[in-house]
């Protein structure tokens, strides 16, 4: 499907049967940018019914931050939001894609008023299609079927454990199984302590302590060469210093969840 073609296929209020979502949708991820909490809940429920991974944020600033942290296959954004509206965010996304030669992510406008949020204004901001509130599951399914990647364009996710150190690899690197066992025990003890400290620092909105715990965890990750988590931790340190904990909460939560998975894996070696 050619990108940049604007679609009004979902403006009809006639309900249509919703077929079973394609199997490959379980490997896709959608970002929803919506300032109204009730609509965030509704969109999250809809996307869950369709088997799609998703992240929900409350304004364009958080939307841009989420896109910096991970790849999404499609963005659904309200047009009118405080702090940064959908138009500003969309233009920023297109500029970033152009500057970094990135794949063009489809952006679907979510609006309750086609007078203020007319299609031409959406087009000019770099949006591809629109959804009109109030929204049904069938209407959402219809537009997603048009704009989400097809199965031929989706690569099965590589298991994260395939990128993590193995026991055999560690023994080969350090030369002795006993040394590896002692090293892992020490690293796990410290990392788990720092992980608990990080969670407490985040709950209490203690930015200096959050950065300190992140720094210690990055050191542990770097020791075993876990590049992805290490890089995310370094970026989070910069983000916490620049924007504080509240604006970094989604990224901190995602990092802690992935860190927990990784530490559980190390404990099984």
Automatic annotation (TrEMBL):
Ranges for the Response regulatory domain?
A: 29-148
Q: Which domain of life is it from?
A: Bacteria
Query: What PROSITE patterns does this protein map onto?
Result: RESPONSE_REGULATORY (PS50110)
Positions with biased composition (Polar residues): 1-10
Q: Region entry Disordered: which residue ranges?
A: 1-21
Q: Name one Pfam family in it.
A: Response_reg
* CDD domains attached to this UniProt entry: REC_hyHK_CKI1_RcsC-like (cd17546)
Tell whether DNA-binding is among the UniProt keywords: no
Q: Which residues carry this modification: 4-aspartylphosphate?
A: 78
Keywords assigned by UniProt, alphabetized: Phosphoprotein
In terms of InterPro entries, this protein maps to: CheY-like_superfamily, HPT_dom_sf, Sig_transdc_resp-reg_receiver
What is the protein name for this chain? Response regulator
């Amino acid at each position: 499907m050619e990108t940049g073609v604007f679609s009004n296929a979902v403006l009809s209020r006639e309900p249509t049967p919703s077929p079973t979502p394609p199997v490959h949708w379980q490997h896709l991820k959608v970002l929803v940018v919506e300032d109204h909490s009730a609509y965030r809940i509704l969109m999250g429920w809809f996307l869950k019914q369709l088997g799609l991974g998703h992240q929900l944020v409350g304004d364009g600033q958080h939307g841009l931050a989420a896109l910096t942290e991970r790849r999404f296959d499609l963005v659904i954004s309200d047009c009118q939001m405080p702090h940064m509206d959908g138009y500003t965010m969309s233009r920023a996304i297109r500029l970033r894609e152009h500057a970094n030669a990135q794949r063009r992510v489809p952006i679907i406008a979510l609006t309750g008023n086609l007078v203020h949020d007319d299609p031409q204004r959406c087009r000019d901001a770099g949006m591809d299609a629109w959804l009109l509130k109030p929204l049904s599951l069938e209407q959402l399914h219809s537009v997603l079927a048009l704009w989400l990647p097809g199965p031929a364009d989706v690569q099965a996710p590589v298991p994260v454990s395939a990128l993590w150190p193995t026991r055999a690899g560690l023994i080969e690197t350090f030369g002795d199984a006993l040394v590896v066992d002692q090293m892992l025990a020490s690293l796990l003890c410290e990392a788990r302590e720092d992980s608990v400290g990080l969670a407490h620092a985040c709950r209490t909105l203690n930015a200096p302590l959050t950065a300190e715990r992140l720094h210690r965890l990055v050191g542990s990750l770097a020791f075993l060469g876990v590049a992805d988590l290490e890089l995310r931790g370094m970026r989070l340190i910069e983000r916490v210093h620049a924007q504080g904990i509240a604006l970094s909460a989604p990224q901190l939560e995602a990092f802690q969840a992935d860190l927990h998975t990784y530490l559980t894996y190390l404990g099984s070696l």
